[in-house]
Here is the input.
Amino acid sequence: MRLGRALACINGNQREAREALDRALGTSGLSPFAEAALGGDVAVGLSRLGHYDQADRLLREAAAAMAQWSPLFRAQYLGRQAQTAVRADEPALAVHHMHSLTRALPFVGSARVNTRVAAVITATAKWDRIPEVRTARESLRALLPAEFPSA
Here is the structure.
């Protein structure tokens, strides 16, 4: 999984990255928690490769599974879903994921999650003329601590 995610960040290694990510998805014998985390982490690599639909599905599954164990991991995957929707140029889907993230944030106190939220707010600035995006951005911004400025 880590190899696939790393290769996904380097141009020209798409085939190798996809193969590594597919191998990771084929791993068996994991605990339900580890399986959910693996699926979510593979999804991050798939998003970088432009496989947005599969990434969104895996992130949705990971966030749902993580809800029973870790509000932190759930919020991380919800944030990744929003980022994937931005990469896919899907403002309506990004809004949906941003609202889910807004509902999860009060249960998490994490600089990493706050950094991801700030990144989502910044990345969606290009759609601020869309009222639903503007509302979702404002909802997220209202939950960020002051030390996390965002666009």
Notes: The first helix runs from residue 2 to 8.
